[in-house]
Amino acid sequence: MSDESTAVLRARGLFAGYRKIPCVRDVSLDVRPGEIVVVLGPNGAGKTTTLLTLAGALPGLGGEVQWRGNPTKASLHRRVRDGLGVIPEERSVISRLTVHDNLRIGQGPVEQALDLFPELRPLLRRRAGLLSGGEQRMLLTARALAAQPTVLLADELSLGLAPKIVTRLMQALRGAADRGAGVLLVEQHARQALAVADRAYILQRGSVVWSGSADEARQNLRRVERAYLGQDVGV
Ligand SMILES: Nc1ncnc2c1ncn2[C@@H]1O[C@H](COP(=O)(O)OP(=O)(O)OP(=O)(O)O)[C@@H](O)[C@H]1O
């Protein structure tokens, strides 16, 4: 599983940013089937920019993104058709539609989404905009996982949520990885993400400053958290 050639999604020397100015510089990382990779880093480190560029929502400024071993510049829409799932940072439920309709517009069967998150069953007729933050994240996660993505990219899934719900979401991602999906998780909660992850990267000021196994990161959690807070790194 650790053979580089098995990567399904990979960044190689990636530069990315806005208005042609890179804020992500020379980032190389890969996601393999069956693993959860967590990208940690302080605010503004470039985590979301990296994720959006891997997703095809933002054009790269240098280096390359590879999908199943081939360089790609495909649009987000095309990558989703090819098996990419994305849970963006912002709440992206359609507020005026019901939970059921939000699930129906996903790429996968509604029943499968509900099997993954039975908590959503009693909420099916409710307008998605009326759900709590945690319920909305469950809805987005259920919808993304029901499509059985080859790779799932999730941005700050835990943002502002109670630890119990974060654990529930992380377990769902672990389940998807155990069924063969590659998962890349951008996170601010190092502890809960590392509890389910296989490998980790730490980004600071747009560059990877550390990468290794999640076990190693867990064993050096204090130093990882210092790094996450933008202080010294030397894990
Ligand atoms: N739409 C944008 N236009 C211009 N600059 C942006 C835009 N979005 C982000 N940036 C800048 O790019 C840099 C990296 O931001 P990014 O959102 O990727 O970081 P992050 O690690 O995800 O941080 P956070 O946890 O705060 O979201 C920051 O300096 C940010 O101000």
User: What is the CATH C-level name?
Assistant: Alpha Beta
Which structural class should the secondary elements be placed in?
alpha/beta
Give the ligands present. adenosine-5'-triphosphate
Residue runs with pLDDT of under 50 for 5 or more positions? 231-235
- At CATH level 3, the topology is Rossmann fold
Under the CATH scheme, the architecture is: 3-Layer(aba) Sandwich
Radius of gyration using CA atoms only: 17 Å
The fraction of residues assigned to DSSP E strands is 25-35%
CATH homologous superfamily heading: P-loop containing nucleotide triphosphate hydrolases
> What count of structural domains?
1
Estimate percent helicity.
25-40%
Q: Which overall shape is indicated by the principal axes computed on the Cα atoms? A: globular
Pfam family, one: ABC_tran
Domain ABC transporter: 9-230
Protein name: ABC transporter ATP-binding protein
Keywords: Amino-acid transport, ATP-binding, Nucleotide-binding, Transport
Lay out the secondary structure.
Elements: E1 9-18, E2 21-31, E3 36-40, H1 47-55, E4 62-67, E5 70-72, H2 76-81, E6 84-87, H3 99-104, H4 110-116, H5 133-146, E7 151-155, H6 163-178, E8 182-187, H7 190-196, E9 199-204, E10 207-213, H8 214-219, H9 221-228
Parallel strand pairs: 3-8, 3-9, 6-7, 7-8
Antiparallel strand pairs: 1-2, 1-4, 4-5, 9-10
Helix pairs in contact: 4-5, 5-6
Protein name: ABC transporter ATP-binding protein
Pfam family, one: ABC_tran
Domain ABC transporter: 9-230
